[in-house]
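queue> holo job accepted (adenosine-5'-triphosphate)
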Amino acid sequence: MSNVRGAITIAGTDPSGGAGIQADLKTFQELEAFGMSVITSVVAQNTTGVRGMEHMPLSIIDHQLAAVLEDMPVHALKTGMIATTDMMKLVASRIQQAGVPYVMDPVMIAQSGDALMDEASRSALRETLLPLATVVTPNVPEAEAITGELVETEADMRKVAKIIVHEFGSKSVVVKGGHMEGEALDLFYDGEDFHTLVTPRFDTKHTHGTGCTFSAAITAELAKGKSLLEAVQTGKRFIALAIEHTLGIGHGQGPTNHWAYRHHQHKLEEIR
Ligand SMILES: Nc1ncnc2c1ncn2[C@@H]1O[C@H](COP(=O)(O)OP(=O)(O)OP(=O)(O)O)[C@@H](O)[C@H]1O
Ligand SMILES: Cc1ncc(COP(=O)(O)O)c(N)n1
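queue> job finished
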């Protein structure tokens, strides 16, 4: 029996390599989970914004999912950009079939401001995929869109975390504070206890794909059998180092450095 641990990302693409499927596969590889992918939408984008997109037909999304699930060892999966309600329903039924830990990154809008999900599908996301999630990783605007609550303080983060778990049925949640002021503070809530994940805020505009990379790192760790808390802590370390050791490429908001964790793990004291 092989002891290879496999992870699937179900998401849209980023040909410039910083976000979406490409960021997820790089992250899986760095953390030594065997990476597999199901493409939901092809997005023509780079560090300056989105130029166009094509959603894949439902039939080919389903064929991709069936092909990997029937053949390959899958120990965890994640979703990123799932643009329409019909896609969400299809993906939800396959996730139920897979029966492995599921990390949901509720991607709605790219950092460039371009919409990656049609507006009508926001409530569908809450009803179809959210209740299946082992952990969901909203940023502040996404947490606001999911709950209808304003999020301005750490107390607000705690409030929406409780709503997301107890009212909408995700097993746990990380409310990401990347869009807030001060230290980069994320709040993990497992349905009973809160844990803060804190690093310094690095002064950089190169944060394209931070959410994708963070959730992919959590997925890889869950695929390897780590506990939820260990997985989110490693995810936070992975993304913090990837932001700190920026590559400085692209003409807009550049990608993070997916190999920084491999090179700089010894410098983790500042992460608590
Ligand atoms: N400047 C920064 N310095 C340190 N950590 C950061 C910074 N910006 C974001 N982070 C961290 O990166 C992770 C992703 O957070 P963020 O809130 O940016 O997600 P997101 O908005 O979904 O990402 P994306 O940019 O992909 O949309 C979180 O752990 C957050 O705290
Ligand atoms: C296919 C895809 N999925 C997710 C994001 C979000 O990443 P960001 O908000 O950093 O642009 C993206 N830009 N593209």
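queue> The pocket of MP5 (ligand 2) is lined by residues 11-14, 19-20, 43, 45, 80-81, 107, 110-111, 116, 208-212 (CB under 6 Å).
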